[in-house]
Amino acid sequence: xxxPAGNIDEARFRQVLGHFATxxxxxxxxxxxxxxxxxxxxxxTSVSLDPPLIAFSVGRxxxxxxxxxxxxxFTVNILGADQEAVSRRFASMGTGADGADFDRFDGxxxxxxxxGSPVLDGAIAWVDATIEDEHDAGDHVMVFGRxxxxxxxxxxxxxxxxxxxxxxxxx
Length: 171
What we know:
Elements: H1 10-17, E1 22-23, E2 25-30, E3 36-41, E4 45-48, E5 53-59, H2 65-69, E6 73-78, H3 84-91, E7 110-112, E8 118-120, E9 125-137, E10 140-152, E11 159-162, E12 165-168
Antiparallel strand pairs: 1-11, 2-3, 2-6, 4-5, 5-10, 6-9, 7-8, 9-10, 11-12
């Protein structure tokens, strides 16, 4: 069944694009008060080698991204195959059952990157970046970052998202 352009059903859009496997990341930073903040992102990609640029998209409704954006820098944590619970935690809404802010870092080990953003324990790699640009993209914002540091933290299989579920990839 083919839908005419401009008349794409949202559920069908998700179903079809869900057939594209993506890696899973958590974008972290510190807010202006120095508290760690982060959100799960599976739209991460490399953009350019010269200069070294990366990108990801984030929903306009995110309450976390504005807190990271205010500092101008972030870290992309590339999650390992055993970190599904970490991804789910950082994908959860920002408030707890009592309406108070939900601390996604509670019980999550991390250390600061060279730029000071959280590098999550167990991430297989991380990338520090400063915000280079942002572009409107429908109900999302496309964020471009200039890479300032990066590292393979530990060898291992990545966490993968495919057709609405998590899995792993073994080369």
